[in-house]
Amino acid sequence: YILLYITLWRVYPLETLLAAPTSVSNFMEKSVIIFIYILCAETILKKFSIGKFLILSIILCVLPSIAYISVLGKDALQYYELTNNMSIVGRLVLAYSNAPILVVVLVNANKIFSNRFLNYITVVVVTLIISYILLICTKRGPILWSIVIVFFSVLIRFKLSIMKGVIALSTVLCIIYIFGDALLDMVSPVAPSTVERIRSTIYEGDTAHRFDTNNMGNSGYILGIEQFLKSPIWGDYFRITDNNSIFKGCYPHNLFIEIAMTMGLIGLIPFLLLLKKTYINVLKLLQSQETNKISCVCLFLSVFLQLQTTGSIVLNGFFWFFLYLIFASSKIIVTKRL
Predict the structure, then answer these.
(1) What is the pLDDT of residues 172-227, one digit of tens each?
(2) How far is CA 176 from CA 91, 181, 193, 326, in A?
(3) For the whole model, what pTM was predicted?
(4) Are 95 and 56 in contact (CB under 8 A)?
(5) Which of 80, 135, 186, 246 has the most CB atoms in a 10 Å sphere around its CB?
(6) Residue among 285, 294, 249 at smallest CA distance from 104
(7) Cα–Cα distances in angstroms (integers) from residue 179 to residues 44, 173, 176, in the given order
(8) Residue 143, Cα to own-chain centre: how many angstroms?
């Protein structure tokens, strides 16, 4: 964490950085808040239950999201032009916040409440509401990775072999490709812009030009890799440019490319070692078969996978907090065994 943010001091003024603090004091304030969350993680885990999590999530996240969409109007979130007066961040925040809730609910569909009927109603209602929010927000990444996590959780739950998993995945992809257009037409009246983006991705490929070196928005994988190659050992700088009046700097749309171009190999290697340790702890949590532990894995994976296509880890409270939940949960398991 410290290594990443040291790189912020290379560039001034700070307000020209995408998703970065607007001042040094703002940076320190947000950093302290993230560390407070982390310090409270173990206490939260001891009082955590899937029912409490869902109730708090609905009150603090889902309902405010619906209220925000109602006040702003869904058309304002569906159709937009990139102007300085438009709240571009709003859609990403809504999608980024609600997607982990949906994943936790679906993965633990039969474990939220003791009453089976209440479980069923809760899962159906929450799934419909959050799916609506994700569709309105026009962000493909949170939708994609939520589906991926739920799909693989089903494979794990039924203990399917790798071959059966590949067959199941291939079958699902074929169904999506063949019938996807008809399904998208059904959803189109609700979120036409989102449907158009999803349809173009399925049938046209890289419509966002992430692999294009001439990306006018100064974003994408190739530009991020090119920036990394300029200074592969120490890193170059964190997304700073004057080419675009809205987005400042190269926005790579990928967590690993972002770290590589920002900190070089000196930062990327420690980060990969951290993820290796995280992977080991994730396996421990999955083997425990405990609802709370599996929920922590779902929360982390939801944010981690979203960062492969959308968002940034700069002052990303979700990423750092959910990452620490993995380590804190593993520590609790070890303590119980002792």
Answers:
(1) 888 888 888 888 888 888 888 888 888 888 777 766 667 776 655 566 788 888 88
(2) 25, 8, 19, 33
(3) 0.82
(4) no
(5) 135
(6) 294
(7) 43, 10, 5
(8) 10
> Do residues 331 and 42 make contact, with C-beta atoms less than 8 angstroms apart?
yes
- Residue 93: what residue type? V
Neighbouring CB atoms inside 10 A of 322's CB total 22
Other CB atoms within a 10 A radius of the CB of residue 318 amount to 21
Preceding omega of 142 cis (within 30 degrees of 0): no
CA angle 185, 189, 193 (to 5 degrees): 85
Alpha carbon distance 172, 179 (integer Å): 10
User: Which amino acid would we find at residue 309?
Assistant: T
- Other C-beta atoms closer than 10 Å to the C-beta of 298 total 24
Walk along the chain (338 residues) and give the pLDDT tens digit of each residue: 444 444 444 444 444 444 455 556 666 777 788 888 888 888 888 888 888 889 889 988 898 888 888 877 887 777 654 444 444 446 777 888 899 999 999 998 888 888 888 888 999 999 999 999 999 988 888 898 898 898 888 888 777 777 887 888 888 888 888 888 888 888 888 888 888 888 888 777 766 667 776 655 566 788 888 888 888 898 876 554 444 444 445 678 888 988 888 888 988 999 999 999 999 999 888 888 888 888 999 999 999 999 888 777 766 788 888 998 898 888 755 555 54
The type of residue at 131 is: S
Cβ(263)–Cβ(232) under 8 Å?
no
Q: And the tokens for 10?
A: 């290379």
In the chain, the largest separation of any two C-alpha atoms, in whole Å, equals 59
226: CB partners within 8 A, 6+ apart: 213
DSSP reduced 3-state for 219:
strand
Token digits for 167? Answer: 């067959």
What does DSSP assign to residue 251? B
Between 88-107 and 291-306, two packed helices, what is the crossing angle to 10 degrees?
Answer: 150
Q: How many helices (H) and strands (E) does the chain have?
A: 15, 0
